[in-house]
Design brief:
The protein has 27 helices and 31 strands. The chain is of the alpha+beta class. Helix 4 (about 65-80) crosses helix 5, helix 20 (about 610-625) crosses helix 22 (about 635-650) and helix 23 runs parallel beside helix 24 (about 700-720). The N and C termini lie far apart (about 105 Å).
């Protein structure tokens, strides 16, 4: 019996047309034509029901039949214009709009008028019409979503966000609330008062006594905005280089979530990007010749021998104080640690490549290099492996050749030197003394691989000065630049100088190629020296680390700029020339008190800091341990004991931290709803509003307004207080007294309108942070600028910078 062949499988072709959900189920969209007729007939019969109907049916689009939508629109116009309706007026209005024949003529209007005996049930009919309209909206949204899922190619996260947004807009359309009887409201109010009998604060206590007394705590359904100046505004040109874990990227190419190199090698990511427009930029030059550009407001962490600790100063302040003789060439920035990049499979051992670049001949038919040191020759043999060997070529010259020769048996013929082939692939073959360079893949490699490369260069063409500096000489200007870049990438300092050379040929003195002498310093220079005699000379001297003193700050150009915020606790990142440059506590203190002291479950949504960094900040804030000491692991026995006690306290706190970056209001609502159902959270804290996104908005102001409106709706729906951080713009800095106003809310839109309470944090110390002679008072003012249900005013607190903690003032403290 012959089997019937199975037809080949043919994948179904994806449809390019928009999906009609109604066709999937072979049904017409739901509607209630009779109810629509009854609503219109009631409005014609008795115009007084229009007030009730318009509160239910918000738009003519709620009618399924187009003729009914046109009649409803005409009825609304009459109701708004003359506050009365009759058949004559309605007919004339439709005639004026050229719509009478399209709706069915006078006969159809009479039919509508006679369709109901009474207008008493107009509200009931309107609710039926509205219900069917909402169901059709859901069907339309589902169709849009299906079409987007099949055809757009968007990510799952984008599709989920779009779906949530569609549903949210439909929910907004449902926003119909009935009036409540005053008697029931008064009974509810008395029940709340009895539940809080004896308590002066009826909301959630924040731990700040005077603030709780003024605001009565945090209340369910209310949105509280806490506004303050961020530690930002630090702009660099879009073409400035920023060091990532994989190498250099331009400032303008960065995206939120990109992983950066940091001063101490710890993980750091971009948490925010803020375009600053065109600005005057300045070039800062350091003592070893490296430089970078920044705007006048850019922040730098600098040190001076007369200060007990580094200070963070703006470029404008640095320009000012560098004019004073005592500061000239005596302010310095800390060097980069050099820890970045991942170990990769490099085509040639880095130490061996350093030797070949330093003292090798990379032209001709064979790989050759010169060396008189037996220890170095032994290392070379070990690095090239058992399939290659050194062949003496006279005096101090050696070839690196294949152990079995180039010839092969039979048809195999001969095989090219694999080391020579690899050097060719790196672009180094046929480079002469004046054209050598270091391939980029080696400059972006791991710390240990870069250190081995430098060691190969120093072992061959380098030497050690008696005072501990390393020197390297080359005829290639590009190689000199690359070697200086290499030592800077490792956390050292370096520069090069040009030196004229001469030689004698047949008794005649001639000018030779210029030599470039690299002057290199590093605190651990021994890491880059392997030859015994050079190491001995190094140990006899000092291993020097030149300070990176600021030499000058000069204006250069007008350029488009932006600033970034980074997740590293120090707020430092690495820019051009491996220069280290600079880049919420009040809300977190509130959340800590509610959950730790009152044992009330809270949710913290952090869009700027990671969950580990928030936990570290909480630990330092509550224990009183300096956050810098914790980060650098320089804890005393007392510090460690306090941390252990605090860990026990915080471990019992019902606080739930979500550090999802780029959160949008729809996802926030879903996460908060789940936490409310599963963890019974009673308060939500969001850090911060301007880092949220709301796809589909036409402008940033419209987007922020939509976000604040949705966060307010979240507070109402869950009946919990929502506390949200927001940025203040720079207007306060230009104002005498520096005190912020509500109009300073950045991209405010409807933030002021939606918020029930607006609190602004003002620290005068912040505005004098560039003054080395200023004596800070460590006070903070919490300005309650708006409170829908209470007074406004100012509350004074103490701010402790090392632990980023706000504290209540002792009696009488801070009076002035």
């Amino acid at each position: 019996m012959t089997a019937t062949p199975t037809p080949p499988f043919e994948p179904r072709q994806r449809s390019e047309r928009k999906i009609d959900v109604g066709q999937l189920f072979d049904k017409l969209p739901p509607s209630a034509i009779e109810a629509e007729s009854a609503v219109l007939g009631s409005m014609i019969l008795d115009w007084r029901v229009c007030g009730e109907v318009v509160q239910i049916i918000k738009s003519p689009e709620d009618f399924y039949k187009p003729a009914h939508a046109a009649v409803y629109e005409a009825l609304l116009s009459l109701y708004n214009e003359v506050q009365s309706i009759d058949m004559v007026q309605l007919t004339q209005k439709l005639v004026d709009k050229n719509m009478l024949e399209q709706v069915g003529g006078v006969e159809y209007l009479i039919e509508l008028f006679e369709s109901v005996p009474s207008a008493v049930s107009a509200g009931h009919y309107a609710r039926i019409v509205r219900e069917k309209a909402l169901v059709r909206s859901l069907i339309d949204a589902s169709g849009q979503l299906l079409h987007q899922c099949y055809n757009s190619g968007d990510s799952a996260d984008d599709l989920l966000a779009h779906a949530g947004q569609l549903i949210y807009h439909i929910q907004e359309k449902r926003g119909i609330t009935d009036a409540h009887n005053l008697h029931a409201l008064l009974e509810e109010t008395m029940a709340i008062l009895e539940a809080h009998d004896g308590k002066s604060v009826t909301g959630l206590e924040t731990g700040f006594f005077e603030l709780d007394e003024m605001t009565n705590g945090l209340h369910g359904g209310e949105l509280t905005i806490i506004a303050a100046r961020p530690s930002m505004g630090k702009a660099q040109p879009l073409d400035a280089k920023v060091l990532t874990e994989e190498g250099w990227s331009e400032m303008g190419e960065l995206a939120i979530g990109d992983r950066l190199a940091s001063i101490d090698g710890e993980a750091s990511t971009v948490t925010g990007i803020y375009p600053q427009g065109e600005r005057q930029v300045y070039r800062m030059t350091l003592s070893d010749g490296r430089s970078t550009e920044c705007c006048n407001e850019h922040l730098w962490q600098v040190s001076y021998r007369g200060w007990d600790r580094p200070r963070v100063l703006e470029t404008s302040k640095l320009r000012e104080i560098l004019g004073k003789k005592r500061y000239q060439k005596r302010l310095w920035v800390e060097p980069f640690c050099g820890r970045f990049g991942s170990a990769v499979a490099l085509p040639v051992d880095p130490w061996l490549l350093g030797c070949l670049i330093g003292d090798g001949t990379l032209t001709g038919t064979a790989v050759r290099f010169s060396c008189a040191d037996g220890e170095t020759l032994s290392r070379v043999q070990s690095a090239i492996g058992e399939h290659m060997h050194l062949q003496h070529a006279g005096r101090y010259d050696y070839r690196i050749v294949q152990a079995g020769g180039v010839s092969r048996k039979g048809l195999e013929g001969w095989r090219a030197n694999p080391l020579k082939s690899t050097i060719s692939e790196l672009g180094l073959w046929d480079t002469h003394a004046a054209t050598k360079f270091i391939p980029k893949i080696y400059l972006d490699a791991s710390y240990d691989q870069r250190a081995d490369l430098l060691a190969g260069l120093i072992d061959t063409d380098g030497w050690v000065e008696r005072w501990g500096s390393l020197r390297f000489a080359t005829a290639s200007k590009q190689l000199a630049r690359d070697v200086v870049t290499l030592i800077r990438s490792l956390g050292g300092s370096g520069s090069y100088s040009r030196k004229a050379t001469t030689y004698t040929y047949r008794g005649e003195k001639r000018k030779g190629l210029p030599a470039y002498i690299c002057n290199l310093q590093h605190h651990d220079a021994a890491r880059f020296v392997r030859q015994a005699d050079k190491r001995e000379r190094l140990q006899a001297g000092r291993q020097r680390q030149r300070r990176l003193n600021i030499v000058s700050i000069e204006p250069t150009r007008i350029a488009s700029t932006q600033c970034i915020s980074v997740s590293h606790p120090s707020r430092l990142y690495v820019t051009d020339g491996y220069i280290v440059t600079h880049n919420t506590a009040f809300m977190l203190n509130m959340a800590e008190h509610v959950s730790t002291v009152n044992k009330i479950p809270v949710a913290v949504f952090s869009l700027e800091m990671s969950k580990q960094q928030l936990a570290q900040r909480l630990l330092c804030s509550r224990s009183g341990v300096d956050s810098q000491k914790l980060r650098k692991n320089m804890l005393s026995r007392d510090d460690f004991g306090r941390l252990q006690m605090t860990v026990g306290e915080l471990a019992e706190a019902p606080m739930f931290i979500d550090d999802t970056p780029g959160l949008n209001p729809v996802v926030l609502r879903a996460k908060a709803q789940r936490l409310a159902n599963e963890r019974h959270i009673k308060a939500i804290f969001v850090d911060y509003l301007q880092l949220m996104s709301d796809p589909g908005s036409n402008s940033r102001q419209e987007e922020v307004s939509s976000i604040s409106r949705q966060i307010k709706a979240l507070a109402r729906d869950l009946e919990v207080p929502v506390v949200c951080l927001s940025q203040l713009n720079r207007q306060a800095e230009q104002r005498e007294g520096h005190r912020p106003r509500m109009s300073d809310l950045r991209e405010s839109g409807s933030i002021e309108q939606d918020a029930d309470v607006v609190q602004m944090v003002h620290r005068e110390d912040y505005f004098h942070r560039n003054d080395p002679d200023y004596d800070p008072d460590h006070l903070a003012e919490i300005i309650v600028a708006k409170q829908r249900n209470g007074p406004t005013g100012v509350v004074k607190l103490q701010f402790h910078g090392p632990t980023t903690r706000f504290n209540n003032l002792a009696s009488g403290q801070g009076d002035y």
